[in-house]
Amino acid sequence: LVLIVCNVGFAATLISLNDLKLDENINNYFFNQEISEFSYEGDGYGIGSNYSVLFIPPNKLKDKKYDSLTIAFSNNSKKISYYAGFVEGFKNLNECLNFRDKQVSKSKKEFLIHERENQTNKHSDGLIQQTVRFISIKSSAAFSCDYFEEEKNSRVDFRFDVLTNKFNDWVVNLNDTKTTN
C-alpha cells in the first residue's frame, strides 16, 4: 500500500491550457520534481531571475489542441504570470493567420469587455509576431503567428498566450520588443 501511494504521489501531471489560471501558485499544478524537470535556465529566465519558465512537452498534455505549453511564474511568489499554447509548423504566414483568425472568432465572447489591438511585434532576435491582443486592466490574451522573416513562407507557429501586464512589461524589456499597430 505504501508503494502505491508513493507512486501516485510522483505520477506525472497531465495538464491542459484550460487548467491554468494567472496568479495561481505553480505548485497547485506541478510537483517540485516536475518543475525542475520542465524548467529552462537561460535567456533571462531561471532561479536567479524574476521569472522561471517551464516548457511542457506533448506527452504531458491532456488534450492535443496544442503541440506544447509554456508557463512562466514569479520566483518570489511562485504565482503564474504567463502561459501559452503552441500549434507548430504552418506552411506559411497566410495559413497561420487564417487559423489565428478562426481562433479569435471562436473566442470573441470571452473577450467582449476587453480592448482589442492588432499588433506587429518584433523581438531583438528577429522573431516577428502578427498579433490580435485583448487587453484588460491587469492582464491580456493574445493570438499570434510567430515567424522569422526568412521562414514566413516555410514555417510559422501559432501561439495563444495569457499574461499579466507586469510580466508583459518585463518580457518586452528583456527581449527589446518593438510593437506597431
Explain how this protein is built.
It contains four helices and nine strands, in the order ααββββαββββαβ. With 181 residues, it is an alpha+beta fold. A hairpin with a 3-residue loop joins strand 6 and strand 7 (139-148). It is globular.
Element layout with pairings:
Blueprint: H1 2-9, H2 32-38, E1 39-40, E2 51-56, E3 68-74, E4 80-90, H3 93-107, E5 115-122, E6 127-135, E7 139-148, E8 156-164, H4 165-175, E9 178-180
Antiparallel strand pairs: 1-2, 2-3, 3-4, 4-8, 5-6, 5-9, 6-7, 7-8
Structural class of the secondary structure composition?
Answer: alpha+beta
Provide the β-strand percentage band: 35-45%
Distance between the termini: 60 Å
Q: Tell me the number of strands.
A: 9
Rounded Rg = 17 Å
Give the strand line-up of the largest sheet: 1-2-3-4-8-7-6-5-9
SSE order: HHEEEEHEEEEHE
Largest sheet features: 9 strands, antiparallel
Question: Can you count the helices?
Answer: 4
Oligomer: single chain
Quick check: average pLDDT? 90
> Could you list the spans in which at least 5 consecutive residues all have pLDDT below 50?
1-11
Shape by Cα distribution: globular
| Helix amount | 10-25%
